[in-house]
What does this fold into?
Amino acid sequence: MTAKEIERELKRIYKIMDNWNTENKEYRELIPQVIVARREGVLYMQQALYRVLNARKLKSKILEYFSLADYYSKKAEMLLNENAKNN
It folds into this structure.
């Protein structure tokens, strides 16, 4: 994953997070657990991308690879959960 791809993905995550305030107003009481789990996954992916960037600054290939693996596994998990809910 290149630095530009990471930047694009982080911008996409920020856009998702910006929509949370408007979504919160729609739920007058408690936010559904499904939404909370999705938001948790988004924050986790953001954290993994920052670990990748940090590993690159430290020039640690091992840390970079583990962080990328962590990011892609969480992304795949979120996609599988979304598909399961839609079916």
The chain is about 85% helix and 0% strand.
